[in-house]
């Protein structure tokens, strides 16, 4: 499978080819070049998936293959950083997800971004992002993953800040980069600790040759916890930053300042799930050696899922609702990974249902969430606003957007037979298997999900009638935008029927899914009840929502202000770090440290001025000094 | 004749022909020809060194020769290069070349400016090719004096103060150095001033401790060792563009190079004992420089503090005393040299257009000067350690190398130094966000013109260097690793 290298090289070439000439290239040429490249990449990915899943199952076990790998840098006696391609069920699955969503976004953007200044730059950045994201999932070693991890971070920075003359976009891009960078710092420390003990970065060596290597790091402890546990917890912190887990989630809602297709690609379907992918990639170590970290991941995920869902209920910017929904859904994926338990520790531990459910949800979520974002983009394109108050009754004007959006809403709410139902239900089963408390918590969150999604749906497409300004009526988007919507809607319907357990499991063998009917029935009932409540409140314009908000004013206000987490960060960064540490440091440098140097200079000058008098050349003065000193010495001698 | 003498011969020839030059055009053609010749010579040297290495000869000094110069003190004109000095020579020639292009329009006294600039280069090249302690010291002093005049005459702002401060602090440091060098010479038995010869001799520990302190601080001042770095922000801010480039890009590397070649190589026992002290200072410097940079408004001050942070990282890595970390230190010197030169070149060209360096007085410049803007962002990304650009390679090598030390003390310091990558991201993005992005602050800036050919050429050369190291570091890193492996 040597051709897989092309999957990486093609987007890189298209980035350089579109990016370097800049505005000398015609916008249309840039768009077509980018889209055609991506179409080729997508075809290659599908072919790779086909070839992999038809040939690489030996004795019921999916093989891990490395079609190419070369050394990029030596760091130390044994350690070396490689760049290469690793194919196993999860990387192939991600390959399909990324290239599909990216292709859809490329096509969609031809319509959405038409006439925008910097169209070429936009397509160049999209190619750069796709290259980095593919490099991340295909990584053969953890350091390669880190390299591409940083590259997706910077592509995200560039795309969020695409409208660089808008101060809000600049601030959002800065915030996204710095928050994730902060998390990456821990990731890097984790890698350093892990690689020091194992003397390898390579996934293959870590997982298969694992036991002996990893046990070495179990022996060494720091503050009562083994080095391996520290390393894995630190690595998860990096994952939490990228995947917007509480309390590192604050960058994602602001990242909505970027163009909507970008949000669909980066901040819904691909980059933000990189954290889930990282945990899944390191899963054998988590479950086999540090289950306590894994359970920590479950709690972080569960808290984030509910927390974000509560905020999503009261937001009025449709993209922000979707952003919080994404945070909440990634929480679901983290929970699913975290609730995996295995009786045996060490080499033969396998995750069971949760692992498979998590990645299945990642897959279906990528489809329906990018559909939701692209649908929202279509709406924004029509009404030129992100705010719910400028929408309502749009179903008459935009039928395709309406139907596809509804399909996605049903999927995320967990209504059968849409894909979201199947994957979410497996997560529920896994959560109930872990503990009843976790199960109930997640069911509650799922209910809230259905509620806020249908609030969003009704407020856009139903509710009050759209007020037509002058003779400009909102109209359906061009075909370049509606076709991707329809394609993704198709995937959203069909996705649930994929026998996922056959392909993607923690131990690369088949996992037979048996749906727990009790759990399924409870989930469906809760979802239906939530949708019913949303219908009651938002289908027609009425005063009920306002009254409800009034009754729960305290909670409403707190949720509206996102529980003041941003303010806490503001306080820490502005007040404490910027004013409290950085300013004194700058002052200290100018006045104390530099002052000491200047003081030294001053002292030298003064001393020389004082001493200068001794050699004035005035004979009278010498005579006086001579006489007085003689007298003084004489007097002293006599006394 | 030793091939290395060409690195002294060319600057001398340039100096002589500059004396004879009668107009600006002649001056510029002499400078371009000369610096291109230097660049060609250093590339040829690098190729020759690497091919010799394939024959199994790396890891030792190549092209060595020695002529006794002053018998009573055994001072010789000894030449020789290893991978580290070859890399530094390449860096210097690239910066001299690009510095020439950036100074294309320097006014007034064009000829005199380039005369001093040439003399400065002569000192730098001489320093990197010699292996004799005293001759090294002499070239170091040659490089130092022109700096005073270049800043004092062609500088901006409070240039007299800055020039005086810079020169006095560096002179003070060289007083320590001279004592240190003579001390090493006498305690090593007074037989030779040549570094490879002294390296075989065991200097008594008590003497090592004393002279390590003297030489490390002496070179450290030049390498912006915290807390002796305060000459650098003022000096850089006042210096003319090309001088800032050469100074931050190359001259500060003399400090790191000296610490490595003289203090660490010749007195390894003292280095082991005294390293913790200096590690604390340098780790503080790394973090502190970055924090201080957050608060600056002047582009040159931001970059100067950023240099303090990056240069302290060089010294930090050298003091880790592992082979990987030292390789990283040299990589960091190269990377920082190119990066900071690019920064200063861009700041200079932007300043020529806007007549201000205050980020609060600019905004939205990306739209009017896209070429310079994009280059600035690339330099910024290199500075915050983006993979694919040089900063990442050097920083990662340093941090992995530092982690090879198993003790908690060094680990904690490594983590402190490591956290600077977040702070770096903060000040770089703040700077870029303020003056390149956002709405236009000053309506006059709408008429700015983008870079012209000589500026573009300089920027492209430097960017290409940064990208090359960032993407294909293997050959370079292996070459340096071989060379630093010589240390006991």
Please supply descriptive tags for the structure shown above.
heterodimer, A: 639 residues, 2 domains, two-stranded antiparallel ribbon, 26 helices, B: 488 residues, two-stranded antiparallel sheet, 19 helices, 74% helix
Description:
The complex is a heterodimer of chains A (639) and B (488). With 639 residues, chain A is mainly α. Chain A has 2 domains: 4-560, no CATH class; 568-638, no CATH class. Chain A has 26 helices and 6 strands. Chain A has helices spanning 4-19, 27-55, 89-112, 119-137, 142-160, 167-198, 203-208, 210-219, 227-242, 251-254, 260-269, 274-281, 283-289, 291-314, 318-338, 353-383, 399-413, 419-434, 436-461, 479-494, 500-503, 517-538, 544-551, 553-560, 565-612, 619-638, and strands at residues 57-58, 61-62, 65-74, 80-87, 221-222, 225-226. A two-stranded antiparallel sheet of chain A has the order 1-2. Chain A has a two-stranded antiparallel sheet with strand order 3-4. In chain A, a hairpin with a 2-residue loop joins β5 (221-222) and β6 (225-226). In chain A, α4 (119-137) packs antiparallel against α5 (142-160) and α18 packs across α22. Chain A is globular and about 115 Å long. The model of chain A has no long low-confidence stretch (mean pLDDT 85). By secondary structure, chain B is mainly α. Chain B has one domain (3-484). Helix content of chain B is 74%, strand content 3%. Chain B has 19 helices and 2 strands. Chain B has a two-stranded antiparallel ribbon with strand order 1-2. The longest helix of chain B has 32 residues, at 323-354. The mean pLDDT of chain B is 86. The chains are: A mainly alpha (639), B mainly alpha (488). At the A-B interface, β3, α5, α6 and α25 of A face α6, α11, α16, α17 and α19 of B.
